[in-house]
Amino acid sequence: MEAPDFEVVSPPTDGISSLAFSPQAEILAAASWDAAVRLYEVQPSGNTIPKASYNHEGPVLCVDWSKDGNNVVSGGTDKAARMYNIATGQTTQVAAHDEAIKSVKFLDGQSNILATGSWDKTIKYWDTRSPTPVGTVQLPERVYAMDTKNDLLVAATADRHVLIFNLNNPTTIFKQTISPLKWQTRTISCFIDGKGYAIGSIEGRVGIQYIDEKEIAKCFSFKCHRDDTKNVYSVNSISFHPGYGTFATAGADGTISFWDKDSKQRLKSLAKQNNTIACTAFNRNGSIFAYGASYDWTKGHKFYANEGQINKILLHAVKDEDCKPRAKK
């Protein structure tokens, strides 16, 4: 029998919207609908110690770390991005939009540059030392998901638009396309080499998309997060393993699967949770996989009222058999 996954102590008191590990230490940041961001230190034993927390003025929708591990940035429905300094415990506002901020991402190779994607149909770039944006891009619709790796930034919006940016020219849309999936986009995540992205929809599908025209033939989509009785569930999160480049999908069916896009096979599934999985994250070397089990509102208010709310963050000790690519069949 496998050892059970570790449960994080003192979890958020409402839905868990986003998880991110420090790139420099075993510290996990969790954003929640209870308007707080919490930091947990993960010990080698798997036990966790609540380290710090700070608040927004409304539900927090996203969280990310600076590359040096000194700062956490989060965005929320209070239309602000706030930065928490680990050393000083101080929080400062570093970005503002006209509507909720759905995604915050520090750019690779730029120590203080932050990208924020909002429901106000813009992406803004900020130098965290300055109160005004260093660049703004108008988008066709509200940002639902955004990710960046190396020189690539991808944003998925309402109406299934996908906007691709080359960060050498960050305020110009490099390519505008429509999601390969027929239904609303829920999540998007860049390959670890920055050559493409995986996109997930509310209709239990994932699309694997390459940027370079020469690799378009390698693009494909597949079904996942469905059950034997043909129920279809949202793909809520896609996280790539930082070493192997394989990836995990998590769904509203309470399941998590690890996949290898290159051999097009499922590597492993984790035990089903009795709640939807809202968000996931690997730590810096891929040895820990964190996932947030909390209601994602896919069944509306009534279900929440009847079923009650469980909010848990679990830590899975990753083994090679979970994520290591296998020889192609």
Order of helices and strands: EEEEEEEEEEEEEEEEEEEEEEEEEEEHEH
Structural class: mainly beta
List low-confidence stretches.
none
- Per DSSP, the total helix count is 2
What is the molecular shape?
Answer: globular
Largest sheet strand order: 1-28-27-26
Mind describing the biggest β-sheet? 4 strands, antiparallel
Average pLDDT level: 94
Question: What portion of the residues fall into strands of 2 or more residues?
Answer: over 45%
Protein name: Poly(A)+ RNA export protein
Family: Belongs to the WD repeat rae1 family.
WD repeats: 9-43, 53-94, 94-136, 235-269
InterPro entries: WD40/YVTN_repeat-like_dom_sf, WD40_PAC1, WD40_repeat_dom_sf, WD40_rpt
Describe the structure.
With 329 residues, this protein is mainly beta. Helices cover 4% and strands 48% of the residues. The chain is built from 2 helices and 28 strands. A 4-stranded antiparallel β-sheet has the order 1-28-27-26, with no helix packed on it. Strands 2-3-4-5 form a 4-stranded antiparallel β-sheet, with no helix packed on it. The chain has a 4-stranded antiparallel β-sheet with strand order 6-7-8-9, with no helix packed on it.
Brief synopsis:
It comes from Rhizopus oryzae (Mucormycosis agent). It contains 2 helices and 28 strands.
Please give a handful of descriptors for the protein shown.
28 strands, single chain, four-stranded antiparallel beta sheet, 329 residues, WD repeat, mainly beta
